[in-house]
Amino acid sequence: MPVILITGASSGIGAALARLYAREGASLVLTGRDRTRLKAVAQECRERGADIRTRIIDVRERTEIGAWIRELDSATPLDLVIVNAAVNGGHPSGGLETEETAFETADINLGGALNVMLPCVTLMSARGRGQIALISSLAAYAPLPDAPAYSGAKAALLAHGLALRQKLKPLGVRLSVVTPGYVKTPMGGVIKGWRPLEMSAEQAAGRIIEGLERDRDVIAFPAILAALARGALLVPERIRSAGLSGFRFRNRPRR
């Protein structure tokens, strides 16, 4: 059975992926920043027969993350790494995003993702096998006016992942970028606004696993919303802006 690392596994898509991958003989490494929730997810996965290791870690800590991944991979080589940890960003009342929030969002959603991904790229390419999944968003195609830092970080992750996929393929390493639409998660639950075609975290996790098994370059869903988001890149700015006007939202204050 493969050894799978999932970041941001304490809730939402990360937790749902952990539950679906958890089975007799499976080996999962789960990270998150919420100790209580991560412990609960780990226990549920153990009850399904999986071997579980957990780590409370901040993905922004590049040196710590890199050292830990190299140590982990040395003991049990990683077969699949799902880079999922992220935050929403935006302004609580829908106003202009603050510098503090923007940098925090970019540091976690892009910098943190690279801190996890790049050591894995080095290790996997050296041995000629492995798979990486980067969790981006449909906002990478259709940037949300109320979440510019989030949209920008996810767009950068999409571009980086697709470019890197071409370099890694000849080296035996597979890389996919996941661009979900609206998913019902604790993170998404702080958003007040229209959320068309929203699906459960379990449904999203199932589609991600299916896409990874097929080694798809981009795993985008739901199909209708994905097509509209991708099409937004091809239309004039005035049309794109008008189309996105219905997707305004406000964040409930963080706790």
Structure description:
Helices cover 46% and strands 19% of the residues. The protein has a single domain, classed as NAD(P)-binding Rossmann-like Domain (Rossmann fold, 3-Layer(aba) Sandwich). The protein is globular and about 55 Å long. The chain has helices at residues 12-21, 35-47, 62-75, 99-127, 148-168, 201-213, 223-231, 237-244; strands at 3-6, 27-32, 51-56, 80-83, 130-135, 173-180, 183-184, 191-193, 199-200, 218-221, 249-251. It has 255 residues and is an alpha/beta fold. The model has no long low-confidence stretch (mean pLDDT 90). Helix 1 packs across helix 6, helix 3 packs parallel to helix 4 (99-127) and helix 4 (99-127) packs parallel to helix 5.
Rg, please? Answer: 18 Å
Please tally the helical runs, counting DSSP H or I stretches of 4 or more residues: 8
User: SSE string, helix = H, strand = E?
Assistant: EHEHEHEHEHEEEEHEHHE
Number of domains: 1
Share of helical residues: 40-55%
